[in-house]
Design brief:
single chain, 583 residues, alpha/beta, Rossmann fold, Aminopeptidase, 8-stranded mixed beta sheet, 5-stranded parallel beta sheet, 40% helix
Length: 583
């Protein structure tokens, strides 16, 4: 990003949009770092108006300490060596020399401790992104520049210990990735440092700001990967050379395919759905999957579409089985033609070429996949996602025309409602990742989400589900407020894995009962993807909504089908699950 581009992005920010405020804590003059950070965040948060505030020059610990009770949506901390001791920079270097080194190291340790303590005092719902020192140290050591000095190693060690300490609370910029985006030899600008107080070159300021913005406003991870088999998951065409001769090992010069299998296996373990679409003989493919040396276990791939029809049709059936949209999925194939056909049939799906003989391109592909599916944490629901999709097959088969009453009655379904006193990270994850059964498509930053609990009459409900086929985990979230005998639902999402089980009806039944509500007001807004939610609301109200609307209990009771769930309440539910109600 060029500086002129950044300024243009900021000028075009929507004036009346909800604000997104970030505190920038840096010891140097922020200048272009502030501009680039605001622009990168504005690009990522087009429906917000990004504002940046800066702290006191030369006092990172003091700036952070002042944020203890701040109403910020995020904190960005681009640290540099001079923030730890002025003698570790050029602008206010002070005395250099062997005698000064012990004091520099001990002083830097004390500042790092103050910074860590200040960060730990910032509210947990406010994300904090930290970039560790990225500029070269000044020539204060007795060794030549190509030799690492003992004091330099001591400083590196102290910074590493600091990073380990705050890593439990903060997100840290990957220094190796930053080095790729901004080569170390092109980062420091001595003239700018001495004359303006900004030590960065413009490209490095842009790179640091971009890295911090990714941590404060990360992209939503993709949910599923569909892979080709021949010359993608393994080397060779199984139907031509035989299942026993396809390879993915170093001895056969085909380890690129082995590395791809290993990454897919890791993604599957983290909850990513893995499916396969291959023009092939099913019996031949089955024999390959029976090989004991396969690095990606066959039970981690579901569904498996193997036949001679168009892959776009296979992808359509896989998406239907997973019940997710094409833009949540990545398709990998070694054929540019197959990728083009799939991209035409499924706009929005990212299609990536598997480079069978290009090692540099394969390296880039593996890194790209990790970025697309990366997530800050793996939840319990991630671990059971694939198995719950398998369990959904009987429900999908039964609901081809209409769900069998007998099937639902015998499912031994249990719906558990949790009215938590605090915040559950899974609730916000569901709200921000769910598209199809989503009341209005509104996404929230963590601080905004937590602040909703402070409204008079506010409530949060998290719904879990299990039946005789196994658990689905936490699959629905309702958020809103109550005023007397009226209930206002502002947020309602449900995982696509829970469709066809009448859980949505049970949610409304529970809310009417627990709140003794006469009417429920829904902050509904149509989106391009929430058709399933629109269908449900039409089924219980008698009309397809196009704006916020209300539903009274009598009409709901008239329209709702019979419910067979056993309803329980989580033992962790709060007795005072609604905050002080408005009169």
């Amino acid at each position: 990003m060029k500086l002129t581009e950044a300024l243009k992005i900021l000028q075009q920010a929507p004036e009346n949009a909800p604000p997104f405020h970030v505190a920038l804590a840096c010891g140097y003059t922020p200048l272009h770092v502030e501009t680039f950070l605001g622009a990168h965040l504005q690009q990522r948060l087009a429906d917000r108006r990004v504002t940046i505030s800066t702290g006191v020059y030369g006092d990172v610990p003091g700036t952070l300490a002042g944020l203890k009770d701040a109403a910020a949506h995020g904190v960005a901390v681009p640290l540099e060596w001079a923030d730890l001791d002025p003698r570790l920079g050029y602008r206010e270097a002070g005395n250099w020399g062997i005698k000064a080194l012990p004091g520099i190291i001990s002083g830097a340790m004390a500042v790092l401790d103050r910074i860590a303590a200040a960060v730990e005092e910032i509210r947990l719902d406010i994300p904090v992104a930290v970039c560790l020192p990225s500029l070269p140290l000044p020539p204060i050591f007795h060794t030549a520049g190509w030799q690492a000095a003992e004091a330099q190693l001591a400083l590196d060690r102290k910074v590493a210990e600091f990073a380990s300490r705050i890593g439990r609370r903060c997100s840290l910029v990957n220094s190796a990735r930053l080095a790729e985006d901004s080569p170390p030899g092109e980062r420091y600008d001595l003239k700018s440092d001495l004359l303006t107080g900004l030590p960065y070159t413009l490209p490095h300021a842009a790179a640091v700001a971009s890295a911090l913005s990714r941590l404060l406003a990360p992209p939503l991870p993709k949910k599923g990967l569909i892979t080709d088999l021949d010359n993608t998951l393994w080397r060779g065409i199984a139907g031509e050379i035989g299942p026993e001769n396809v390879s993915w090992d170093l001895a056969s010069h085909s380890q690129l395919h082995g590395l791809y299998q290993k990454l897919l296996a890791a993604l599957a373990e983290e909850g990513v759905l893995i499916g396969a679409a291959s023009k092939n003989d099913p019996a031949v493919v089955q024999r390959v999957f029976e090989r004991e040396d396969l690095l990606l276990r066959p039970d981690r791939i579901f569904p498996l579409e193997v036949h001679w029809s168009a892959k776009s049709g296979s992808i359509e059936r896989i998406l239907r089985t997973w019940n997710i949209s094409a833009d949540d999925v990545v398709f990998v194939d070694d054929s540019a033609m197959e990728l083009a056909e799939a991209a035409y049939a499924h706009p929005g799906m990212e299609c990536l070429l598997f480079p069978t003989n290009d090692y540099a391109a394969a390296y880039a592909l593996l890194r790209r996949l990790r970025d697309l599916f990366g997530k800050p944490r793996v939840s319990e629901e991630d671990a059971i996602r694939l198995e719950s999709i398998r369990q959904s097959a009987p429900f999908q088969a039964a609901s081809g025309e209409s769900t069998s009453e007998t099937f639902l009655q015998e499912a031994e379904a249990v719906v558990t409602f949790d009215f938590p006193a605090g915040n559950d990270p899974r609730a916000l994850d569901l709200v921000n990742k769910t598209n199809q059964f989503n009341l209005n498509g509104i996404r929230y930053q963590e601080a905004d989400w937590k602040n909703r609990r402070t409204r008079p009459g506010a409530f949060l409900v998290i719904v879990s589900y299990r039946d005789k086929f196994g658990p689905l985990g936490k699959i629905a979230v309702l958020d809103g407020r109550q005023e007397n005998d009226n209930l206002f639902i502002d947020t309602w999402v449900m995982s696509c894995r829970a469709f066809s089980r009448r859980i949505e009806h049970q949610c409304l039944e529970a809310m009417f009962d627990r709140c003794a509500a006469r009417e429920i007001f829904f902050d509904f807004r149509p989106t391009p993807k929430n058709g399933p939610l629109q269908d449900f609301l039409a089924s219980v109200s008698g009309r397809r909504p196009d704006a916020p609307f209300r539903l009274n209990r009598a009409l709901f009771e008239e329209k709702r089908p019979r419910l067979y769930h056993r309803v329980t309440e989580s033992p962790t539910s709060s007795n005072s699950w609604i905050t002080s109600r408005s009169a």
